[in-house]
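#onboarding

Welcome to the new folks! Below is a worked example of what a typical request in this channel looks like: someone posts a single protein sequence, and someone else replies with the predicted structure as tokens. Don't worry about understanding the tokens yet, we'll cover that in week two.

Example request:
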Amino acid sequence: MGIQERIGAAIAALRGVQQPGPPPARKASIFHFPDWLVGSARWRTDDKYADYVREGYRLNSLVYAPIRYKARAVASVPAVAATGDPDSPEWLPSDHPLSQLVRQPNRWQTWRAFNEQRKTYLELAGNAYVYAERDAGGKIKALHNLRPDRMYIIAKTEGVVGYGYLPPGKNDPLPLLVTDVAHSKYPNPNDELEGQGYGMPPLLAAARDADTDNNVTEFIKLVFERGAMPMGMLRFETSLTDEDAALARRRFTEVYGSYESWVQPMVVDKGGSYEKIGMTFDELGFDVLDARNEARILSAFGVPPILLGTRYGIEHGTYSNYSEARTQFWQDVLVPELRMFEDDDRRLLEMGDGSFLMYDLSVVPALQRDTAPLIDAAHKLWQMGVPANQALASVGLPIEEIAGGDVGYVSKNVQAVGSATAPPAGMPQEDDATPVEEGAAEDVPKGAAPGADEAPRRERWTGEQKALLWKAMDDIALHNEGAFRNYAATQFELDRREMMVLIAGAQEKALRQKATIDWQPVADDALQVIQGAGERWRSAFIPVVRGVVTDVSSFWNVEAGLSFDVTRLEDQAFFTDYSMDFWDQISETSRSEIGGVIQRGIREGWSISEMQSGLDSVFQQWIGGDGDAALQRFASGRLQPWRTELIARTESTKATSWGAWQTYRGAGVAEKEWISTSDARTRPTHVTANRQVRKIDEPFEVGGHKMMHPGDGSLGAPVSEIGNCRCSVLPVLNEE
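Example response:
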């Protein structure tokens, strides 16, 4: 339908409302509305939106808090454009029209801001309206939220046929087609249009409790404004004229009638006395009222009190309750409401090519199972000889599509007992995994030092078994990657706060001197802050490294019968030589990009808010959040996205390899072997280094650089040989 046809249809629908004619003959339909509903605009039966905003959202924190909490939570879930089976969808490319819409529905808002506004409307009015703006060809080019108090429904015999939108200051409504509006609403048992009409706002159910809470707050406010004194009576033993009584009342109020003076000792002359006739706050029972109002108001919105930190929630909750409450809140409240948005959006954004919108709930932490204990349990089963796939299924984890997953291995010597015939795909391999006859000598290991005098020996492990050992080391690195990621994100957040403190200090100085902000000293101080953050990063990472080394040493003590004393890990000196050389790269990148943003602000004359937004965008991109769209475009190609991911992967691999190397040294192992992955992502220099054997304290030669183990930069290896490395170091152990 073209633009002219669409306008004509909308106007016709509105004219049908303004000048109703004889109703047409009814066709067979489940919708047979009464005649008084036909041909007239249906205004809301509960038209109190302005009151809800003023008395609830603006003046009552118990109403404001759950609405904002739900709106922020819903906005945190990204919408994605997908195709295929909704149960196993495929993401569409970023240049697809639907992908562009869900990234930025209109030129003023991101999808996060758009959905936050829509959710706020829904909570306050029980209704949310999204209008699809179309181009001349009928294709959707933008989405807009419409204020619910400006919308009304046009109904005919067959049901809702359109909507009217009344802009502020206008008398004539704008007609909108049903196909151009997505109407999301909460159920309304009084709906005159049998489910097609207006929704009921949650605040309607909590209105009396909200009014009570407002009245209590207003009463307390008035008490303090009028002297913070309970009602009382002055008594005098002598008779007083009206003038004397007025004077006594005025003097008493002036001396004792303020919240600063009402606790002062009272002195009453002429035989006078004071008798309290009102009730104190304790006697009025405000605590009970507060708890009652908190529970009842928040229950109307479905938000557990503990999540908002209310007094009632704190008194009746623990940290364990908090975690359970978050999960329950998402599962029982937000997920169904997001599904409602999803259904309405899919109908509105139908493009005819099989694409559809969906919300990616995989990013919601509260909905993710705590997989760390499950992974540990599966790994222990695998160590006991249970095949990997069976171990994963036993603890409820999804089975990974890996070759050799149905093969079991005996602990201690990792001897295959299943039908393993080939190394798993993507795993390191030996050139010749054929068993060697007893007493026969193998070739000199690849990469051994030139001229090394190798005695005939039989290695304990085949190439296939080394592949499984590499996988075990990789699992330990992956298991601890989340901890490194969280610590990195925390450190970036601390750096960001330092930047905000510098900006606030510059602002205060400028106001004091009645001058504009000089951003250059801010830039200099910011670079100093970044440079000095290295020790803080090291202190944060060492506890995680200790946990990694504990996992690695325990594994090798069991699998290879090594005798590394794990109590050494309690000695802080053990970690003094754990180099944080990777911090140099982190610091250099941070200094460069932070300095670039500030220098841009200096050139363009940014305001304080613009500078704060610019720095926020940098840190949010590093951590993995959303920033200002324009600044993100500026940063594109300059900033490395999701730096926390790179740091986490690199440091977890490095810590695992360093811990393994230290375990071998402590257990008296004489030699070590570099094991690389064998897929397309592996660096050519690391492929060449595969199966290189060195003395335990002799560095490997990797791409012309010396490295004691994968991830090691202490001997000068650049980040190009360290970042995202997935190699491992194994001990060289021979059969007796």
